[in-house]
Specification:
With about 325 residues, the chain is α/β, with parallel strands linked by helices. The protein is built from seven helices and 17 strands. The strands form four sheets. The protein has a seven-stranded parallel beta sheet, sandwiched between helices. A five-stranded parallel beta sheet has the order 14-13-15-16-17. Strands 8-9-10 form a three-stranded antiparallel beta sheet, with no helix packed on it. The relative contact order is 0.12. The structure holds flavin-adenine dinucleotide.
Protein backbone atom coordinates (compact mmCIF):
# COMPACT_ATOMS: atom_id res chain seq x y z
CA UNK A 1 0.00 0.00 0.00
CA UNK A 2 1.58 3.33 -1.00
CA UNK A 3 0.83 6.71 0.50
CA UNK A 4 -2.36 7.66 2.32
CA UNK A 5 -2.81 11.40 2.78
CA UNK A 6 -4.82 12.49 5.83
CA UNK A 7 -6.55 15.88 5.80
CA UNK A 8 -5.37 17.01 9.24
CA UNK A 9 -8.00 19.52 10.31
CA UNK A 10 -7.49 21.82 13.25
CA UNK A 11 -9.35 24.52 15.13
CA UNK A 12 -7.09 27.54 15.45
CA UNK A 13 -3.97 25.38 15.58
CA UNK A 14 -5.38 22.60 17.77
CA UNK A 15 -5.75 19.37 15.81
CA UNK A 16 -9.16 17.74 15.87
CA UNK A 17 -9.40 14.37 17.56
CA UNK A 18 -10.51 12.90 14.23
CA UNK A 19 -7.16 13.81 12.69
CA UNK A 20 -5.40 11.36 15.04
CA UNK A 21 -8.04 8.72 14.40
CA UNK A 22 -7.43 8.90 10.64
CA UNK A 23 -3.63 8.88 11.01
CA UNK A 24 -3.94 5.78 13.18
CA UNK A 25 -6.07 4.04 10.57
CA UNK A 26 -3.69 4.95 7.74
CA UNK A 27 -0.79 3.50 9.73
CA UNK A 28 -2.80 0.35 10.53
CA UNK A 29 -3.33 -0.18 6.79
CA UNK A 30 0.46 -0.34 6.40
CA UNK A 31 0.59 2.79 4.28
CA UNK A 32 3.21 5.49 4.13
CA UNK A 33 1.32 8.05 6.20
CA UNK A 34 1.22 11.58 4.89
CA UNK A 35 -0.84 14.51 6.13
CA UNK A 36 -1.91 17.88 4.83
CA UNK A 37 -2.27 20.87 7.14
CA UNK A 38 -3.89 24.06 5.89
CA UNK A 39 -2.83 27.19 7.75
CA UNK A 40 -0.99 27.56 11.01
CA UNK A 41 -0.74 24.44 13.19
CA UNK A 42 2.14 22.39 14.64
CA UNK A 43 2.49 20.08 11.64
CA UNK A 44 5.62 18.23 12.85
CA UNK A 45 3.68 16.97 15.89
CA UNK A 46 1.67 14.66 13.63
CA UNK A 47 4.76 12.45 13.47
CA UNK A 48 3.76 11.21 16.92
CA UNK A 49 0.73 9.59 15.27
CA UNK A 50 2.64 7.99 12.41
CA UNK A 51 2.83 10.73 9.75
CA UNK A 52 6.21 10.63 8.03
CA UNK A 53 5.64 13.71 5.87
CA UNK A 54 3.30 16.61 6.46
CA UNK A 55 2.54 18.98 3.61
CA UNK A 56 1.70 22.40 5.02
CA UNK A 57 0.01 25.13 3.01
CA UNK A 58 0.41 28.61 4.44
CA UNK A 59 -2.57 30.94 4.30
CA UNK A 60 -5.72 31.99 6.04
CA UNK A 61 -8.43 29.38 5.54
CA UNK A 62 -10.66 30.69 8.32
CA UNK A 63 -13.30 31.97 5.89
CA UNK A 64 -14.14 28.34 5.03
CA UNK A 65 -13.92 29.13 1.32
CA UNK A 66 -14.19 25.68 -0.25
CA UNK A 67 -12.66 26.93 -3.53
CA UNK A 68 -9.48 27.83 -1.64
CA UNK A 69 -9.47 24.59 0.37
CA UNK A 70 -9.98 22.55 -2.83
CA UNK A 71 -7.17 24.38 -4.64
CA UNK A 72 -4.81 23.92 -1.68
CA UNK A 73 -5.60 20.21 -1.42
CA UNK A 74 -5.12 19.80 -5.18
CA UNK A 75 -1.66 21.38 -4.92
CA UNK A 76 -0.75 18.93 -2.15
CA UNK A 77 -2.05 15.97 -4.15
CA UNK A 78 0.32 17.01 -6.93
CA UNK A 79 3.24 17.14 -4.50
CA UNK A 80 2.39 13.98 -2.55
CA UNK A 81 0.86 11.69 -5.22
CA UNK A 82 -1.08 9.69 -2.63
CA UNK A 83 -2.99 6.51 -3.43
CA UNK A 84 -5.82 7.60 -1.15
CA UNK A 85 -7.01 10.58 0.87
CA UNK A 86 -8.81 10.28 4.20
CA UNK A 87 -10.79 13.13 5.72
CA UNK A 88 -13.35 13.28 8.47
CA UNK A 89 -16.99 14.11 7.68
CA UNK A 90 -16.57 17.72 8.78
CA UNK A 91 -18.26 20.65 7.08
CA UNK A 92 -14.95 21.62 5.43
CA UNK A 93 -14.25 18.14 4.06
CA UNK A 94 -17.84 17.55 2.96
CA UNK A 95 -17.58 20.80 1.00
CA UNK A 96 -14.12 20.34 -0.48
CA UNK A 97 -13.62 16.63 -1.15
CA UNK A 98 -16.37 16.18 -3.75
CA UNK A 99 -14.97 19.23 -5.56
CA UNK A 100 -11.48 17.74 -5.35
CA UNK A 101 -12.76 14.40 -6.70
CA UNK A 102 -14.36 16.20 -9.65
CA UNK A 103 -11.22 18.21 -10.28
CA UNK A 104 -8.99 15.11 -10.20
CA UNK A 105 -11.48 13.01 -12.15
CA UNK A 106 -11.44 10.34 -9.47
CA UNK A 107 -13.93 8.56 -7.20
CA UNK A 108 -15.07 9.31 -3.68
CA UNK A 109 -16.98 7.50 -0.95
CA UNK A 110 -18.56 9.67 1.74
CA UNK A 111 -19.43 8.95 5.36
CA UNK A 112 -17.61 5.62 5.52
CA UNK A 113 -17.54 3.68 8.79
CA UNK A 114 -15.04 0.93 7.98
CA UNK A 115 -11.93 0.67 5.82
CA UNK A 116 -10.09 -2.57 5.10
CA UNK A 117 -7.49 -3.86 2.69
CA UNK A 118 -8.39 -6.66 0.29
CA UNK A 119 -5.06 -7.54 -1.25
CA UNK A 120 -3.71 -4.14 -2.17
CA UNK A 121 -7.13 -2.57 -2.69
CA UNK A 122 -8.97 -0.45 -0.15
CA UNK A 123 -12.55 -1.52 0.47
CA UNK A 124 -14.70 0.94 2.41
CA UNK A 125 -18.09 0.41 3.99
CA UNK A 126 -20.70 3.16 3.96
CA UNK A 127 -24.26 3.32 5.23
CA UNK A 128 -26.97 3.86 2.61
CA UNK A 129 -30.75 4.46 2.73
CA UNK A 130 -30.49 6.42 6.01
CA UNK A 131 -28.43 3.66 7.57
CA UNK A 132 -30.84 0.81 6.75
CA UNK A 133 -28.16 -0.98 4.74
CA UNK A 134 -24.43 -0.90 4.14
CA UNK A 135 -22.53 -1.06 0.89
CA UNK A 136 -18.87 -2.01 0.43
CA UNK A 137 -17.13 0.06 -2.20
CA UNK A 138 -13.77 -0.04 -3.97
CA UNK A 139 -12.69 3.03 -5.92
CA UNK A 140 -10.89 2.48 -9.20
CA UNK A 141 -9.60 6.05 -9.78
CA UNK A 142 -6.53 7.45 -8.06
CA UNK A 143 -6.26 8.94 -5.56
CA UNK A 144 -9.33 7.36 -3.94
CA UNK A 145 -11.12 9.87 -1.70
CA UNK A 146 -12.96 9.03 1.51
CA UNK A 147 -14.74 11.01 4.20
CA UNK A 148 -15.02 9.00 7.41
CA UNK A 149 -17.58 9.27 10.21
CA UNK A 150 -15.88 10.40 13.42
CA UNK A 151 -15.31 7.70 16.06
CA UNK A 152 -15.26 4.91 13.46
CA UNK A 153 -11.76 3.67 14.35
CA UNK A 154 -10.80 4.76 17.85
CA UNK A 155 -7.87 6.86 18.96
CA UNK A 156 -4.23 5.75 18.50
CA UNK A 157 -1.64 6.21 21.24
CA UNK A 158 0.79 9.07 20.66
CA UNK A 159 4.37 7.96 20.01
CA UNK A 160 7.58 9.97 19.98
CA UNK A 161 8.08 10.67 16.25
CA UNK A 162 8.33 14.00 14.52
CA UNK A 163 7.23 14.45 10.91
CA UNK A 164 9.16 15.99 8.06
CA UNK A 165 7.26 19.18 7.16
CA UNK A 166 7.23 20.34 3.54
CA UNK A 167 5.77 23.70 2.58
CA UNK A 168 3.48 23.63 -0.46
CA UNK A 169 2.37 26.79 -2.21
CA UNK A 170 -0.81 27.15 -4.20
CA UNK A 171 -2.50 29.74 -6.31
CA UNK A 172 -5.46 31.01 -4.32
CA UNK A 173 -8.50 31.33 -6.57
CA UNK A 174 -10.38 34.62 -6.72
CA UNK A 175 -12.83 34.59 -3.81
CA UNK A 176 -16.42 33.91 -4.86
CA UNK A 177 -17.76 34.47 -1.38
CA UNK A 178 -17.27 37.04 1.33
CA UNK A 179 -17.91 36.40 4.99
CA UNK A 180 -20.24 39.16 6.11
CA UNK A 181 -20.88 38.00 9.66
CA UNK A 182 -19.74 35.27 12.02
CA UNK A 183 -22.05 33.87 14.64
CA UNK A 184 -20.57 31.65 17.28
CA UNK A 185 -22.96 28.90 18.38
CA UNK A 186 -23.53 28.24 22.06
CA UNK A 187 -20.92 25.54 21.79
CA UNK A 188 -20.58 22.58 24.06
CA UNK A 189 -17.29 21.16 25.22
CA UNK A 190 -17.30 18.59 22.40
CA UNK A 191 -19.05 18.96 19.07
CA UNK A 192 -21.87 16.42 18.63
CA UNK A 193 -20.39 14.90 15.49
CA UNK A 194 -17.15 14.08 17.32
CA UNK A 195 -18.67 13.19 20.70
CA UNK A 196 -17.90 9.77 22.13
CA UNK A 197 -20.99 9.86 24.42
CA UNK A 198 -24.32 11.55 23.76
CA UNK A 199 -27.45 11.95 25.87
CA UNK A 200 -30.40 13.00 23.70
CA UNK A 201 -33.87 14.08 24.71
CA UNK A 202 -37.11 14.20 22.76
CA UNK A 203 -40.49 15.89 22.68
CA UNK A 204 -41.46 14.14 25.90
CA UNK A 205 -39.21 16.47 27.90
CA UNK A 206 -42.08 18.94 27.67
CA UNK A 207 -40.17 22.20 28.11
CA UNK A 208 -36.74 23.81 27.80
CA UNK A 209 -36.55 24.05 31.59
CA UNK A 210 -37.04 20.30 31.96
CA UNK A 211 -34.55 19.57 29.15
CA UNK A 212 -32.02 21.75 30.98
CA UNK A 213 -32.85 20.14 34.32
CA UNK A 214 -32.74 16.50 33.21
CA UNK A 215 -30.80 15.98 29.94
CA UNK A 216 -27.91 18.42 30.46
CA UNK A 217 -26.97 17.31 34.01
CA UNK A 218 -27.10 13.68 32.90
CA UNK A 219 -24.81 14.54 29.96
CA UNK A 220 -22.46 16.45 32.26
CA UNK A 221 -22.27 13.54 34.72
CA UNK A 222 -21.25 11.17 31.91
CA UNK A 223 -18.85 13.61 30.24
CA UNK A 224 -21.25 13.44 27.30
CA UNK A 225 -22.65 15.97 24.85
CA UNK A 226 -26.37 16.76 24.85
CA UNK A 227 -28.41 16.03 21.72
CA UNK A 228 -32.06 16.29 20.78
CA UNK A 229 -34.70 15.03 18.41
CA UNK A 230 -36.13 17.43 15.87
CA UNK A 231 -39.39 17.57 17.80
CA UNK A 232 -37.46 18.80 20.84
CA UNK A 233 -35.56 21.35 18.76
CA UNK A 234 -38.70 22.58 16.98
CA UNK A 235 -40.35 23.02 20.38
CA UNK A 236 -37.41 25.18 21.51
CA UNK A 237 -36.08 22.81 24.19
CA UNK A 238 -32.65 22.58 22.55
CA UNK A 239 -30.76 24.52 19.88
CA UNK A 240 -30.62 23.55 16.23
CA UNK A 241 -26.96 22.56 16.37
CA UNK A 242 -27.96 19.91 18.91
CA UNK A 243 -30.39 18.17 16.54
CA UNK A 244 -29.52 14.60 15.62
CA UNK A 245 -30.92 13.04 12.48
CA UNK A 246 -31.51 13.33 8.78
CA UNK A 247 -31.84 17.11 8.89
CA UNK A 248 -29.58 17.45 11.91
CA UNK A 249 -26.19 15.95 12.62
CA UNK A 250 -25.01 12.43 11.93
CA UNK A 251 -23.31 11.11 15.05
CA UNK A 252 -21.31 7.97 15.76
CA UNK A 253 -20.57 7.80 19.50
CA UNK A 254 -19.63 4.81 21.63
CA UNK A 255 -22.71 5.48 23.76
CA UNK A 256 -26.01 7.08 22.67
CA UNK A 257 -28.77 7.49 25.25
CA UNK A 258 -32.15 8.27 23.67
CA UNK A 259 -34.50 9.51 26.38
CA UNK A 260 -38.14 9.89 25.42
CA UNK A 261 -37.40 9.61 21.70
CA UNK A 262 -39.73 7.41 19.65
CA UNK A 263 -37.16 6.34 17.04
CA UNK A 264 -38.57 7.87 13.85
CA UNK A 265 -36.62 6.92 10.73
CA UNK A 266 -35.34 10.49 10.37
CA UNK A 267 -33.87 10.36 13.88
CA UNK A 268 -32.40 6.90 13.35
CA UNK A 269 -30.68 8.18 10.20
CA UNK A 270 -28.46 10.30 12.41
CA UNK A 271 -27.57 7.86 15.18
CA UNK A 272 -28.14 4.23 14.33
CA UNK A 273 -24.43 3.53 13.75
CA UNK A 274 -23.76 4.37 17.44
CA UNK A 275 -21.93 1.47 19.08
CA UNK A 276 -24.15 1.14 22.19
CA UNK A 277 -27.68 2.58 22.14
CA UNK A 278 -29.66 2.90 25.37
CA UNK A 279 -33.36 3.73 24.91
CA UNK A 280 -35.61 4.96 27.70
CA UNK A 281 -39.28 5.13 26.79
CA UNK A 282 -42.61 4.64 28.54
CA UNK A 283 -44.00 2.87 25.47
CA UNK A 284 -42.66 -0.68 25.19
CA UNK A 285 -43.70 -0.69 21.51
CA UNK A 286 -41.65 2.43 20.59
CA UNK A 287 -39.59 1.75 17.42
CA UNK A 288 -36.39 2.91 19.09
CA UNK A 289 -36.30 -0.35 21.08
CA UNK A 290 -35.75 -2.32 17.84
CA UNK A 291 -32.39 -0.59 17.50
CA UNK A 292 -31.40 -0.36 21.15
CA UNK A 293 -28.60 -2.38 22.72
CA UNK A 294 -30.29 -1.83 26.09
CA UNK A 295 -33.92 -0.79 26.50
CA UNK A 296 -35.54 0.59 29.64
CA UNK A 297 -39.34 0.80 29.64
CA UNK A 298 -39.91 3.62 32.08
CA UNK A 299 -40.39 7.29 32.76
CA UNK A 300 -37.27 9.24 31.82
CA UNK A 301 -37.91 11.68 34.68
CA UNK A 302 -37.34 8.78 37.08
CA UNK A 303 -34.83 6.70 35.13
CA UNK A 304 -32.32 9.41 34.14
CA UNK A 305 -31.88 10.92 37.64
CA UNK A 306 -31.45 7.41 39.03
CA UNK A 307 -28.71 6.60 36.48
CA UNK A 308 -27.13 10.01 37.08
CA UNK A 309 -26.96 9.38 40.84
CA UNK A 310 -25.24 6.03 40.22
CA UNK A 311 -22.75 7.61 37.81
CA UNK A 312 -21.96 10.41 40.24
CA UNK A 313 -21.51 7.90 43.04
CA UNK A 314 -18.72 6.27 41.00
CA UNK A 315 -16.57 9.43 41.14
C1 LIG B 1 -38.11 15.60 6.18
C2 LIG B 1 -38.05 15.29 7.64
C3 LIG B 1 -36.83 15.39 8.30
C4 LIG B 1 -36.75 15.10 9.66
N1 LIG B 1 -35.52 15.19 10.28
C5 LIG B 1 -35.43 14.82 11.57
C6 LIG B 1 -34.17 14.84 12.24
O1 LIG B 1 -33.13 15.22 11.70
N2 LIG B 1 -34.13 14.42 13.52
C7 LIG B 1 -35.25 13.99 14.21
O2 LIG B 1 -35.12 13.64 15.39
N3 LIG B 1 -36.44 14.00 13.59
C8 LIG B 1 -36.57 14.42 12.31
N4 LIG B 1 -37.80 14.45 11.73
C9 LIG B 1 -38.98 14.25 12.58
C10 LIG B 1 -39.28 12.81 12.88
O3 LIG B 1 -40.13 12.28 11.87
C11 LIG B 1 -40.06 12.70 14.23
O4 LIG B 1 -41.20 13.51 14.19
C12 LIG B 1 -39.22 13.14 15.44
O5 LIG B 1 -37.96 12.48 15.43
C13 LIG B 1 -39.98 12.78 16.72
O6 LIG B 1 -39.28 13.25 17.83
P1 LIG B 1 -39.49 12.57 19.22
O7 LIG B 1 -39.10 11.14 19.16
O8 LIG B 1 -38.82 13.45 20.22
O9 LIG B 1 -41.07 12.74 19.48
P2 LIG B 1 -42.23 11.67 19.42
O10 LIG B 1 -42.23 10.91 18.18
O11 LIG B 1 -43.45 12.42 19.82
O12 LIG B 1 -41.85 10.64 20.57
C14 LIG B 1 -41.87 10.92 21.93
C15 LIG B 1 -41.60 9.61 22.63
O13 LIG B 1 -41.47 9.85 24.02
C16 LIG B 1 -42.09 8.80 24.75
N5 LIG B 1 -42.39 9.33 26.07
C17 LIG B 1 -43.40 10.18 26.43
N6 LIG B 1 -43.30 10.50 27.74
C18 LIG B 1 -42.20 9.86 28.22
C19 LIG B 1 -41.56 9.82 29.48
N7 LIG B 1 -42.01 10.52 30.51
N8 LIG B 1 -40.46 9.03 29.60
C20 LIG B 1 -39.99 8.31 28.56
N9 LIG B 1 -40.55 8.31 27.33
C21 LIG B 1 -41.64 9.10 27.16
C22 LIG B 1 -43.27 8.42 23.90
O14 LIG B 1 -43.67 7.09 24.17
C23 LIG B 1 -42.71 8.57 22.48
O15 LIG B 1 -42.14 7.36 22.03
C24 LIG B 1 -37.91 14.72 10.38
C25 LIG B 1 -39.13 14.62 9.71
C26 LIG B 1 -39.20 14.91 8.36
C27 LIG B 1 -40.52 14.77 7.67
Amino acid sequence: MSGILVFAEHDGGVFKKTTFELLGKAAELGATVQAVVLGDAPAADLGAYGASTVFQVAGDFSSHDSDAVTAALAAVVEAASPAAILASTTYAAKDALPRLAARLGTGMASGVTKIDLEGDAIVARRPIYSGKAYVDVAISGSPALYTVRPNSFGQPEAGAGSADVQAVSFEAPAARLTVVERKTPETQAVDLTEADRIVSGGRSLGSKDKFDAVIRPMAAALGATAGASRAAVDAGYASHEEQVGQTGKVVNPSLYIAAGISGAIQHLAGMRSSKVIVAINTDAEAPIFEHATYGIVGDLFEVLPAIQAEVEALD
